[in-house]
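> run fold Ribosomal RNA small subunit methyltransferase D
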Amino acid sequence: MASPSRPSKKPAHPHNGVNQLRIIGGEWRSRRLSFPDVPGLRPTPDRVRETLFNWLAPYVAGAKVLDPFAGSGALFLEALSRGAAMGQALDASNVAVSSLREHLGTLRCSVGQVQTADALRYLETQTATAFDLVFLDPPFNQNLLPGVCALLEERRWLADDAWVYTESEAAPSGLGMPGNWRLHREQKSGRVYYALWQRSAGVDG
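> ok
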């Protein structure tokens, strides 16, 4: 997944075209996996991932997880490691998808699926499954979050009380999220905002 790297661990400059991410908790705890240099790919820092999964601790096991902008797969793999029942990952980059698919094979994970797809087109055209947990870390400066969130809500991709995680260059209060999404937690690291939202099925968006 994307976000600015921690300078001490993952410099902005590639090391011979190979970078690494570390799974923090769960079945594959401490496993290190490489991922390719793809433009715009910014794995969520370890510290932020640890904070996020502390927030989500009671809700990951048994959850259905969707990651429409998977990138390195850091968040997707972390959720599967921690007991998510199934996961669907998408990315527009064939290189990123190939790498993530290889990781799933290495980890002998049979409940995660990944495919090359444009997130907006996929959410608009495919038959919806109600997901319990969604990670949204789209490329920055393209204003993708409002459209993706609207499709998640309108096309019924979310369980009644789904959790949605967002990374953005804009403050959560200005993202224009659906009206029935409640901001649960937020954090800022550098210039990036991290937020966790909970959907309520009982309020009109």
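The chain has five helices and nine strands.
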